[in-house]
Amino acid sequence: MDDVAASTVASGDVRIASESFGRTGDPGLVLVMGATASMLWWPEHLCRRLAGGGLRVVRYDHRDTGRSTSNTPGVVDYAVEDMVGDLLAVMDAYGFERAHLVGMSLGGLIAQIASVTAPERVASMTLIGSEPLGGGDGELPGIDERFMDHFGTMGDLDWSDDDAVAAFLLEIARLSAGRPEAFDPQSSMARIAGELLRTDTMQSAFNHAMVTTETDWTGRLVDVETPTLVMHGELDPILPLANGQSITEQIAAARLHVLHGVGHELPIDALDEIADAILDFAADAGHAPT
Fold first, then answer.
1. What pairing do the DSSP bridges indicate for beta strands 122-128 and 99-104?
2. The domain that contains 277 carries what CATH number?
3. How far apart are CA 81 and CA 131, in angstroms?
4. For 149-163, how does the pLDDT look when each residue is reduced to its tens digit (9 = 90+)?
């Protein structure tokens, strides 16, 4: 496998930081992370496992995260659809006419919009801990109130104090875990430390809380023909399992893989299960030409 390579991608006036694993010319797989999260939320072990399965794997920083272009905290001049444009710009920069998409949380919403608006670009999609585009039948369960209580403390957070910011982010990771006894604070703190080193504006990542869609996507999921793997934590406290079940019901080409004992997270002890499921599904869907 080739060494890891970093690249900066232009998406209009926005610069998107990215990183690739695997051989040039292998079928492409793009990892799309969730809200407020940089590419570091995709563990390197997972990236290397996927690349070792014969795919060229790309992860990238959303705008307002990591080394990508960031707005002033509180300033949001883009919509989720613009973030779909960022994804397609990343694919273009790596020469992927089509690619397998793996999206987590907001990243799953971005992948769903790409499958609706540019189905010819998407070989397959894997949705991890995501909500259904346009909603489902009836009201779906949402975020645990403990998160809202924690987010309510942001007004008193000193964003210039890295230790305080790290503690705030660590608590988000702890609350996201499915099993408190399995939560690994050391690996979470290592990721958080890496994120703080890669940005001067960690607060800007929380601009994502104000990002919305421009289009009414109600009812559009039933039109999706893209092979879809829905992976969802059994104990997800942010987007409970009913959200993944709703996606599976709406997309005819979808199947559900429940991650037992997992919350809204990519825990170390589940990474091999996740990688194997993605690789098997991508192979079943057919490798995409680059």
1. parallel
2. 3.40.50.1820
3. 16
4. 999 999 999 999 999
Q: Closest Cα to residue 47, out of 33, 67, 34, 68?
A: 33
96 within some domain? yes
Domain for residue 290, yes or no?
no
The pLDDT, as a whole number, for residue 2 is: 55
Q: Is residue 107 part of a domain?
A: yes
**How many residues appear in the chain?**
290
CA dist., res. 93 & res. 10, Å (int): 8
Measure the CA–CA gap between 267 and 254, rounded to whole angstroms.
24
* 78, 56 Cβ separation under 8 angstroms: no
Phi, psi of 56 (to 5 degrees): -90, 115
Crossing angle of helices 162-176 and 185-197, rounded to 10°: 130
pTM: 0.96
Per the structure, the count of domains in the chain is: 1
Give the pLDDT band (50/70/90) at residue 3. Answer: low
Residues 16-35 pLDDT 10s: 999 999 999 999 999 999 99
Domain that holds residue 101: 5-285
Is 200 part of any domain? yes
